[in-house]
Structure formats: C-alpha cells, structure tokens
C-alpha cells in the first residue's frame, strides 16, 4: 500500500496505521485494471473520440442507463455534465446557484469540503445538525426551517451520509422534498456512496422523488468511491431539468470544469459495465468488517459508541464517554499510532468523535482495534 503513493498511506510516518481518508485498500476490479492497461498498451492517449462522439457522452449515457436500471429513475443524458470530481462540482454548483453572502445549508457533521466550498466562495454556512436517535442519526426538519440569517438558498444533501453512514428513508426524503419545494431551495445531492449500502437496503436518488424535486436538484455521482479509483478523476453532475442546466452554464461555462481523462472515462465505463461481480464481493467484505468492528467495540471498548452505518465504509465513533482531555483523533494518533479522521474536521463541536475507514483487510482491522485497545488500557 505504501509503495502505491496515496494520500491515505503516505500522510503519516510508517509507524502509524491509517484508516482516515475514504480510500479502499483493495486491488482494482480486473475489468477496470484492464481498461486502463489496454489504453496504455495501445498508446491510446490522443484526443479521444468514440463512435464519432466525445467519450464523456458515453459516461452520460451509461449513467442514465444505470439510474434507470437500478432505481427506475429516468435521467436525460443531455442534462449531464461529466466533470473531474465531486468536490469540484460542489464548488461549481455553490458558485453558480448562490451569491456571495447568501446561505447554504449543510448537514452536520459534514464531509469537510462541503463547508470549505461554502466558506471559500464567500457564502454563509447554515448548519443543519444531526440528532442521535435509537435508529441512528437523523436530521430534524424543524432545525432546518429555523429562520437563519441569511436564509439558506441551497442545501448540500449528502445521502448516504458521510461520516455517519446514515441513509435517509423514503419518508424522510419526502418530507425534505416538501420542505425544499416550499422554500424554493436548490439541492446539491451528493450520492457518491449510493452503491455502498448494507443489509439489502436500496438507495433512493433524491431527484427521483418527482419532477418538482428534480427540477431543483443537481445529483452528483461517480464510480470512484465504489471502485476505489478516485485518482482517475471522472464524475457526473446531473441537472434535473434543462432549465437548471442552463441556469448553471449561464454562470459557469462547462469548459471551466475541465475534462475527465480518457483513462477515467474508460475505467468508469468498465466499472459500471463489468465490475458488479468484483463490487458484490467487496460489499460483502465491507458488511462483514462493519459487523466485526461493531461487535469488538461493544464487547471490548464499550466506552466507544457507534450507530452501525447503513451505508458507506465509514464508522462515526463517539468517544465522549472516554473522558479524554484532548481531541479523540489526537489521542489515538499519539497513543495508538492509528490515524482516524478527526471529528472536529466534520463539526467543530465533534472533537470527541473520530471517523474510521474500515475498507481494509481483516488483519489490518485487527491491528487497528488492538492498538486502540492497548492505548485505552494504558491511559
Ligand atoms: C460525500 C463525499 N463527496 C465527495 C467525495 C470526494 O469526491 P471526489 O474525489 O470526486 O472529489 C467524497 C470522498 O470521500 C465523499 O465522501
């Protein structure tokens, strides 16, 4: 892993085991590896064209076909822009659909680039905090509709949710849809984790809730999280109506979003077309690791709270019962030599939380849990 040169494995010195940034430690799906290797073997790195069309159109078609097949959600490929990555798409959408000083609602805890996208572009983050309940974290609409100054014009919705792993139910999504229509909000729906769902659950694309919802929703998706290829840079930005797309391109020309490379495009097509068998095996392993981590924490480290994630390979661990005198991420980095994502990067109030990435092998999970156990004992 260290030889690959990745953000996850190279950020800390070799004595530290990393389980922070959302990268998976598995080998690539063979069809994806072959797609990239074939391009290289053929030296096919000119300006690409496929059947007389720019190849990103094939990604738009494949996305539409996939959404229809998996969710019965009809998608117009002509309302889809293929961009390089989701964080770029979030900055772009916030810039195009709001003005400086306006409010952008963000669920808390939040994947850190969401708040960065709002603050870096001079917008105002309107926090929509989660409440823990018996079924996991939830977001009370009452907390979103409180009159914020400035009022939110746009909502960044992360579903499935990073870092809590919560999937909103159809009832919750319908109530939210009703709220956004009544308050005339634009929704940027980040659904990058849509494939990684457990216990036979089914993801529901927010824009599929109806035409009134679709026409105000930008859906963000890619194959990069599910197939472990974020370095290949290829993502989809789907606008739920032509008018919404035109509103966006009137402010930001798509050229400014760059273009995905042919390697990212071919890898995405191969993943969606031929990667299901690989993905099913990975998902089964991830579900097993989720259950294993939960069982070990419950039995041996009960001071650490966890609502088991319904989706994503991320676990949001509540260490507040440990009574630490410093942020939990810092404690485990120094005393266990394990690098988690620090809770305070998701919410300034969450310094007693850490986010664990369990997309790794069982021996590494065991080593991580072992180091945690020892650090807690020697406290
Ligand atoms: C919710 C969410 N959105 C976006 C991203 C990053 O996507 P990209 O690499 O395409 O910018 C991540 C990565 O972990 C994520 O969890």
Automatic annotation (TrEMBL):
Entry keyword annotation includes Transferase: yes
Keywords: Aminotransferase, Lyase, Pyridoxal phosphate, Transferase
Alphabetical list of InterPro entries matching this protein: Aminotransferase_I/II_large, Class-II_PLP-Dep_Aminotrans, PyrdxlP-dep_Trfase, PyrdxlP-dep_Trfase_major, PyrdxlP-dep_Trfase_small
Enzyme class: lyase
Cofactor(s) in the UniProt record: pyridoxal 5'-phosphate
EC id: 4.4.1.13
Pfam family, one: Aminotran_1_2
Keyword Transcription in record: no
Highest taxon of source: Bacteria
GO molecular function: cysteine-S-conjugate beta-lyase activity; pyridoxal phosphate binding; transaminase activity
Domain Aminotransferase class I/classII large, chain residue ranges per copy: 31-371
Stated family: Belongs to the class-II pyridoxal-phosphate-dependent aminotransferase family. MalY/PatB cystathionine beta-lyase subfamily.
Entry protein name: cysteine-S-conjugate beta-lyase
Natural source organism: Azospirillum lipoferum
